[in-house]
Specification:
Number of strands: 5
Strand order of the largest sheet: 4-3-2-1-5
Pfam family, one: DsrH
Number of domains: 1
Organism: Marinobacter excellens HL-55
Protein name: tRNA 2-thiouridine synthesizing protein B
CATH topology: Hypothetical Protein Ychn, Chain: A
Distance between the termini: 29 Å
InterPro entries: DsrEFH-like, Sulphur_relay_TusB/DsrH
CATH architecture: 3-Layer(aba) Sandwich
CATH class: Alpha Beta
Length: 96
Amino acid sequence: MNQIPDTGTLHILNKAPGHPRFVACLAAMSNQDTLILIENAVLALPDTDTVLPRQTLALEPDLEARGLSGTAEPGQQISHQQLVQLTEQHPRIISW
């Protein structure tokens, strides 16, 4: 059986900044974890009051749907296909 290397936990967050689950997700993250912002969570990218982890990615279609395509750093936007690949690479996934 192939073992997936321990790359930390993949956190998939769909709540807007200020929502209790958004706050809980950020508090639960470790340095090895990756955060993916989807749906209303992408609103955190232009929010200068929100400190996001270094390993933060955002789903490109959700950014586009909210007019936020220009707010993500290069390499920070991911497609649905890349999201699926990340779920295959991480041994633990938490959806918030």
